[in-house]
From TrEMBL, chain A:
<dbReference type="InterPro" id="IPR041833">
    <property type="entry name" value="Rab21"/>
</dbReference>
<dbReference type="InterPro" id="IPR001806">
    <property type="entry name" value="Small_GTPase"/>
</dbReference>
<dbReference type="InterPro" id="IPR005225">
    <property type="entry name" value="Small_GTP-bd"/>
</dbReference>
<dbReference type="Pfam" id="PF00071">
    <property type="entry name" value="Ras"/>
</dbReference>
<dbReference type="GO" id="GO:0003924">
    <property type="term" value="F:GTPase activity"/>
</dbReference>
<keyword id="KW-0449">Lipoprotein</keyword>
<protein>
    <recommendedName>
        <fullName>Ras-related protein Rab-21</fullName>
    </recommendedName>
</protein>
<comment type="similarity">
    <text>Belongs to the small GTPase superfamily. Rab family.</text>
</comment>
<dbReference type="GO" id="GO:0012505">
    <property type="term" value="C:endomembrane system"/>
</dbReference>
From TrEMBL, chain B:
<keyword id="KW-0343">GTPase activation</keyword>
<feature type="coiled-coil region">
    <location>
        <begin position="507"/>
        <end position="581"/>
    </location>
</feature>
<keyword id="KW-0175">Coiled coil</keyword>
<protein>
    <recommendedName>
        <fullName>Rab-GAP TBC domain-containing protein</fullName>
    </recommendedName>
</protein>
<keyword id="KW-0597">Phosphoprotein</keyword>
<dbReference type="InterPro" id="IPR050302">
    <property type="entry name" value="Rab_GAP_TBC_domain"/>
</dbReference>
<dbReference type="Pfam" id="PF00566">
    <property type="entry name" value="RabGAP-TBC"/>
</dbReference>
<dbReference type="GO" id="GO:0005096">
    <property type="term" value="F:GTPase activator activity"/>
</dbReference>
<dbReference type="InterPro" id="IPR000195">
    <property type="entry name" value="Rab-GAP-TBC_dom"/>
</dbReference>
Amino acid sequence: MTTAPGGTNNFKVVLLGEGCVGKTSLLLRYIEDKFNDKHLTTLQATFLNKRLNIKGKRINLSIWDTAGQEKFHALGPIYYRNSNGAILVYDITDEDSFGKVKNWVKELKKMLGSDIVLIIAGNKVDLEHERTVPLEEAESYANMVGAKHYYTSAKLNQGVEELFLDLTREMLEKYEQNSQTEVNRTSQVLVVDDETPVQSSCCSGTKSN
Amino acid sequence: MIAEGAISATVSSVEITDLRVPETEAIPRPDRALLAKLEEENRRIEADAKSASLTTVHSRKSSDTSQISLASATSSSYEAEARVSGGSNGEEDLWSLWGRIVSNWETEWKRRNQFVRDLVRQGVPHHFRGIVWQLLAGVDASPEKKLYASYIKAKSACEKVIRRDIARTYPEHDFFKEKDGLGQESLFNVMKAYSLHDREVGYCQGSGFIVGLLLMQMPEEEAFAVLVKIMQQHRMRDMFKPSMAELGLCMFQLENLVQELLPDLHVHFQSQSFSTSLYASSWFLTLFTTTLSLPLACRIMDVFLSEGIEIVFKVALALLTLGKNDLLSLDMESILKYIQRELPAKAEADQDAFMNLSYSIKVNPKKMKKLEKEYTVIKTKEQGDIAVLRCLRQENRLLKQRVELLEKESSALAERLVRGQVDLAEGEEETFALAREVQALRRANVDAQQRLAVAQDEIRSLEMTIAENNSRQSSLEGIEGAEGGGGGGGELARCLQRELVRARLHAAEREAAERELTARIADLENENKSLRRQRVDNNVAHLQDELIAVKLREAEANLSLKDLRQRVSELSDAWQRHLQEHRQEAPPTPVQSNVVSDIMATPKKLLRAWEGRSADMQKLDEELMTTRIREVEALTELKELRLKVMELETQVQVSTNQLRRQDEEARQLRENLDAALQRERVLQARQRESQHKYADLESKAKYESMQANIRNMEDAQRIAELETEVSEYKLKNEVMATEGELRNNMDDSDKVRELQEQVAELKAEVCMHYTHTLYAYN
């Protein structure tokens, strides 16, 4: 959201979702193009930067990876506050994790209004044969809440690059729109800041595997 | 010593399950056997107490460590640990020392607490670790062990969540890496058991690493018991509670310690908005097992179990101190990476030095208490703020809704107002148009009045002429009477003819006038109609009146015209007759008048006069005729004038009617105006009313919000009261529990007393016996 003096746009993106849906793996795949099925449970939020160029604009993404278990959100929603985009990850073989995505959408809409670009990612499509979250349900839900829906597999490197690229494009668009209506936005943001501490427990995203 | 070492090594081995029971029970036996030797050594070591000079070489070291390394995956780290204990020389002594301590734990722990603690700080030898941890945690006879079996069989709500993290806990470690292997299974069992044992905490990510570390040293049951102790005794339970409040507190304390001890770093972190929880929360949640290597984590766990959570702060600060210089030059992302990668490597490089650095950091317990208090204050304040904020937000929402409603109302009112104003403007326009009409009518009225005045003047002048004519007529009659009727007949006839012509002319003129009048009537009628198209009904009556008046006038005029014609014909007859008489009996004078015969009555004079005056007579006759004609003329004129008067009168009437109508109209307009004004007033009143209502609503809203505030405050108070009550109940509960325990203890002491009594009795008996035998001897 902030523009550095050099003309670089800084966007903050947060990965949210139930534990073990693949948040960390998506991030690892995107940033380092690696897959490690032996990484540890994410216990504290961490972030990585990614620089890219879109439409001749230099963009720096700060991608925050969070711990998935609900308890960890008592520590404060500092992770998604001021985020420009959120990737809500669920595991296509785990219906509960899709339910958590719905909770996240609710919380984010409440806290940040429509200032945040939402992306819903159904991860682990390499386990398509074990799918329990119906395809149409996920897509129509995403449609309903105005979020884009992607199918990804961090393991097979499917859809990861596109997801981040599209998210960045949308954030850029929103940012450009918003800079025209700056005044409205700041007021909304104020409300958001106020409310953030209240919210404690919705699930947050964590890593993946 | 050898036996013991072997046993403790097997504790962590994969095959352990079978040996588990004998192991725990077996420990005391070899201990007793070794006790004598160990005590000797012990005395020697005690002499140089805290220096812990463990310098004797032992040849068994290498073989032992290799045995250990088989049991756990990280062999190199154990060699490192061996170094920690002060070189290979001290190894055997250290072992024997630890063996002695372990075998005589309670006494050693009580008698030489500080010494044992210091020894723990040096690192517990791997062989002893499992047992020492249990001893430090005090789980020897803990009831949790018995519960464990039942927990294993039960189902937990957290199973799914726990399973999800199993494969992600020590995934590189031999013991845990096999999917659904023994390690993963025990990990799952212990964590499930704990989630059942402590339902409030349930399962929390991070605890798995602690359990895993324990499982590397001891079997499931013991690991579970130690875990329960760790959770209960060392703040860890609070750390993993759903709100994770303890973690927040630890972060706060650590942040303040960093600020105190490493101010530069604190400033740098702040400038990078790098919050403590970003790097330190996993340190606290997993006691460094996810950050540092297992040997180092084990050493930290040694100290943690003997000294408590303080060591976590110390190690954390030691880590930051190690990396301080590097960290100061890094940005946020690099700090994170550095803390995750380089910093642990730095600490690993020399574990002893690192641990000593940690021990050298002093954490003032008073300061920690103070920070805890501060944090609680901040938290409660924050919570209060949040509550207030929530109240305010809700209030705000309500007020917004109300404002919306009021705005809607107000816009409706504004609309109505606008409509009213439009109506008013229309009314004003109408009024203006009416006023203009009134003005026009007034002008017409003035005109009519002027005309009326002119007509009256004319009437007056006509009356005067009539009066003059009358007087002239009477004078003529007088002359006629005095002079008789002689005179030149021819001239008179001509004169009369002229008069006749004039009379005819007059008649024609009158006819023209009459026509004019009819035209005028028609005009007036038209005018009337155009003026009062709206109120035709009224006007028709007026116009009919006028018409009747006009017709009457016309009839009169016709009548007088006929009269005049008759007169004229009479006159012309008389004139004919006169001319004939003249021609037939020129000299003889026709006996025309009584005057002449009167004159003839006087004999002589009259006869003379008769002859001489026959000509005069004729003249007089002619004159008479002329006068008569004139009279007729005058009469006609008079009649004409009367007609005119009548006409004028009708005109006046018409004008008055018109005036009346105009007045009426004006009144109506005024009424309209009044009505419009009234409507305006009503609208204004209504507007004022709405404004009042608006103000009322606003004040009401304010009042309600105040009430809501008050209610919220009351609720908060009530909650606080309830909380105190709850804590009271908890206290009571504890008191009751302790009472229960006490009662049990009392039972024990009763038994003791009984036994003592029995002993006393026995003693007495013995004494008796003794004395008896003495007696007997004597």
